Amino acid sequence: MGADRPPSVWVFKCHRAGDHAQSIALANALGWPYVVKEMKFLPHELYFALRGKGTLAGIDRRRSSQLEPPWPDLIILAGRQNETPAKWVRDQSGGRTRIIVIGRYWTPAKELDLVVTPPQFRLREHPHVLVNDFPLHQVTRQKLDDAARIWRSRLADLPHPWIALIVGGSSGPYVFSRATARRLGHEASEFARAHGGSLLVTTSPRTGRGAMEALDRAIEVPHKFYRWQPADPENPYLGYLALADRFIVTADSLSMLAEAGATGRPVYMFEFGGGPAAMHGPRGQDPRNRQWWRWSQLKDQGLLGLHYALAIGLPPWRINRSRDIRLAQDRFVALDRTRWLGGPDPQPWHPAPLQDLDRAVARVRALLGREPADADLVHKTGAGPHDAADTAVAPILPGAH
Question: How far is CA 64 from CA 37, 39, 47, 315, in A?
Fold first, then answer.
């Protein structure tokens, strides 16, 4: 890799859209040319993953992207399955290709060049593991400015302050039921009334239809309600991020919390679920919400979520790949990045800009010898000097519409 040309980058597509979005966010932030490669895996690919060797024997070569020279300087990937072909590419390059894993790894960390992960995966400390506060995201200042120009006039009939209500859905041991949706509608309405404002509501792919309808019927203040549709050019999500003065986000979605947090405006988490994995917000302080044998908690958590909740209580290891999103939620609160809806809220606050993407970029650039790594950005998980790169989102203060 010569200093006179940018590094070449391949991004291996992950079957989980949120994880793949993080890979793309890092690739875009690096500013180097990249191509996306997609693998189609065969049922027996796990056998080769267990062996720990790089091979293409577990992929359907006819349906997968071509992997051929010139070999890349860097591969960015998420998802266990992608690690095996990535190691094969590294072998073909004579060890020159560097491998960056987003999220959780399967290959031992010492055999990877860098792992960029948020806290919920409970990964062990290692020199090759960078633990960020939030997941990476693709929300940029330019995207928000463009969305604000489109959506400002469309929301003009609603009273200020505008409070975006961003809704996820069932995840692991947390079931977003109709009853939970109704409770969210009532609590969000109470919050909006207390501030004299209105709600900008958007659902997501994981929001069930029944819960969506229950939420819409429960809202009691002026609002706009968007029902998520795939590839919809009229999706107002970025517009809501750009223009809302405050945010309420269901606490199941760390990615949506990161995107709301990137605006620098107040973010409140809505908690739901119960049993042994109950969230740590105000509702979770009620001992009854931690008793999984109660019928009310089984309805909230579901029998299928119970084994997931129990797995969270076991030590993390290679087979137990459960994530504990409470670790991330607690960190968000400790850093005053978010607060729990319904908890103490003495005065408005303006969270500092997120540093996660900047830290990841600094580590990757240092890894490839492109520039000296800033010690604060590389090694700290708290706030360091802010890199005013185009990928960063500068905070918008309330009223700056």
Answer: 8, 5, 19, 36
* Cβ atoms of residues 316 and 122 within 8 Å: yes
- Over residues 267-271, the mean pLDDT reads 97
DSSP code of residue 166: E
Cβ distance 395 to 267 under 8 Å?
no
Give the residues across from 74 on adjacent strands: 9, 98
Quote the tokens at residue 20. Answer: 């793949």
pLDDT > 50? residue 388: no
Token pair recorded at residue 375: 């010690």
Helix (H) or strand (E) holding 75, with range, is: strand 74-77
Encode pLDDT of 162-171 as tens digits: 999 999 999 8
Res. 71: pLDDT tops 90: yes
- Cβ pair 242, 150 in contact under 8 A: no
359 in Cβ contact with 384 (< 8 Å): yes
Q: Is 9 helix (H, G, I), strand (E, B) or coil?
A: strand
Closest C-alpha to 170, from 251, 92, 259: 251
Residues 6+ apart with CB under 8 A from 323: 104, 120, 121, 122, 172, 312
Peptide bond into 159 cis (omega under 30): no
For the residues of 86-109, what is the DSSP string, one character each? HHHHHHHTTT--EEEEES--SS-G
Q: 59-78 burial, b if ≥16 CB within 10 A, otherwise e?
A: beeeeebebeeebbbbbbbb
As given in the structure block, the two tokens for residue 117 are: 């992960």
Residues in CB range of 382: below 8 A, 6 or more apart: 335
Please report how many Cα atoms fall inside a 13 Å half-sphere around the Cα of residue 389, on the Cβ side: 19
Q: Where do we find the tokens 């200020």? A: 160
Question: What pairing do the DSSP bridges indicate for beta strands 267-270 and 339-340?
Answer: parallel
CA atoms within 13 A on the CB side of 136: 31
Contacting residues for 234 by C-beta, under 8 A, at least 6 apart: none
How far apart CA 255 and CA 321 sit, in angstroms, is 19
Query: Closest by alpha carbon to 216, among 203, 205, 206, 204?
Result: 203
Handedness of CA 159, 163, 168, 169 (dihedral sign): negative
Query: CA 108, CA 317: separation in Å to the nearest integer?
Result: 11
Task: Give residue 301's pLDDT.
Answer: 66
